[in-house]
Amino acid sequence: MDTLATVAICTEPFEVKNVSEASTARISRKDRIMNAVMWRNILGQSLYQLLAILILMYAGHAMFFDEPFNLVTEKMRYEESNPDLGIVAGDPTDKMVLHTFIFHTFVLMSLFNQINCRLIYEDDLNIFRTLFNNFWFWLIFLFEMALQNYMIYMAPGYQLS
User: Fold this and answer.
1) SS3 of 56, please?
2) For residue 98, what are the contacts with CB-CB under 8 A and spacing of at least 6?
3) Which bin fits 86, alpha (ψ -120 to 50), beta or left (φ > 0)?
4) CB 37 within 8 A of CB 122
5) For residue range 45-64, what is the model confidence (pLDDT) as tens digits?
6) Alpha-carbon distance 110 to 49, whole Å?
């Protein structure tokens, strides 16, 4: 999942804040790769995603479904048909729908985090400043979004024979 994001972000044009510092500054082997701003961004995004996924996992059945179900013992697919309820054997249960919803939410949060990751300086607060300066980023972003939507909406109808 992160390979294409890495390619997209690595194709960003190089931008120097202070030209005089960039021409004279050298990078030492003893310099830290991760700085405090990077740790803040990584931990903040991790906390946000973890909190959102946990809320969906443990409260999602109450938020989105009429009937409660057990997160552990509920089957992923119906084993028997029930014509009165319109259920066909092999249809996904509410548990499988919830898991798909959680997966889709996680992927979309990761995709939109790519936009935030394009800025590396601490004082850059406007993520839209360099929004359209990289054609490759948007091409890969749209490909990933199309692939995700294919997996969610089109692929479940595909049956192996």
Assistant:
1) helix
2) 56, 57, 60, 61, 64, 65
3) left
4) yes
5) 899 999 999 999 999 999 99
6) 9
Cβ proximity of 24 and 16 under 8 Å: no
Handedness of CA 109, 111, 114, 115 (dihedral sign): negative
Residue 61, helix vs strand vs coil: helix
Residues 95-152 have pLDDT tens digits of: 999 999 999 999 999 888 888 777 767 777 787 877 788 888 888 889 989 999 998 8
Helix axes 94-116, 135-149, angle to 10 degrees: 180
What confidence score (pLDDT) does residue 102 get?
A: 95
